[in-house]
Amino acid sequence: MSPDPAPRAEPVRRPDPGLGELLGGRAGAVDASVPVVAFVLGWLVAGWAGSAFPINWGAGAAVVAGAAVALWRLARGRRPRAVLFGLAGVVAAAGVALATGRASDFFLLQIVSNAGSALAWAISIVIRWPLLGVVVGGLLGQRTRWRRDPDLLRGYQRASWAWVAQYVLRLAVFVPLWAADAVVLLGLARTVLSPVLVGLSVLASWPLLRTALPDDHPGIRHPR
Predict the structure, then answer these.
(1) Which residues of 71-106 are buried (b: 16+ CB within 10 A; e: fewer)?
(2) Other CB atoms closer than 10 Å to residue 68's CB: what's the count?
(3) What is the mean pLDDT of residues 23-42?
(4) Where does the pLDDT of residue 86 fall: very low under 50, low under 70, confident under 90, or very high at 90 and above?
(5) What sign for the dihedral angle of Cα 118, 119, 125, 130?
(6) More confident residue, 36 or 31
């Protein structure tokens, strides 16, 4: 009589990573905030000193700060493309302010970007390609396998609304300040409010996603 076959070992399933682990990171918030602070300080100091061109000083300070951050991140092994995109955004924002002669227009590209992002995230939910799933699925190496899991797709749709909401809230704050030419308050909101809203979106996304999955679902690492 042949011996009973050895029981097949169950595959080890790693616990789901938190969305903060996948999407978070303080470095990005710092990188984005340094040129903004530099612009506002440069503009303020030049204005107090009686300069006829305070925007020039603010724009120059922002570009120098952005370049310094870019060099620092490159030296620490950050991907060159991501670093150069960040620096290009700072240069473009400074260019808009210099072209219009209005200091608050340094934040105009950010406002337009937030409006576009809110629209893009909302459309992605409606067409069943929620951007949170696209991002997280890409980071987990799943490509589009998560879309074939109806529970996971529904969860990503729910959680993506948190990101739509944070972009809408940004616009509700930034647009009136931009219209009022409130440069200092815009800088403060951009430096403080934006990272807070991103953090809240990350925190809200996980329960919205997880509660859409049945109890026996293996988790976001293992689409069915």
Answers:
(1) eebeeeebeeeebeebbebbbebbebbbeeeebbbb
(2) 14
(3) 78
(4) confident
(5) negative
(6) 36
Mean pLDDT across 118-136: 95
Q: SS3 sequence, the chain?
A: CCCCCCCCCCCCCCCCCCHHHHHCCHHHHHHHHHHHHHHHHHHHHHHHCCCCCHHHHHHHHHHHHHHHHHHHHHHCCCCHHHHHHHHHHHHHHHHHHHHHCCHHHHHHHHHHHHHHHHHHHHHHHHCCCCHHHHHHHHHCCCCCHHHHCHHHHHHHHHHHHHHHHHHHHHHHHHHHHHHCCCHHHHHHHHHHHHHHHHHHHHHHHHHHHHCCCCCCCCCCCCCC
Among the residue ranges 66-80, 124-138, 164-178, 184-198, the one predicted with the least confidence is 66-80
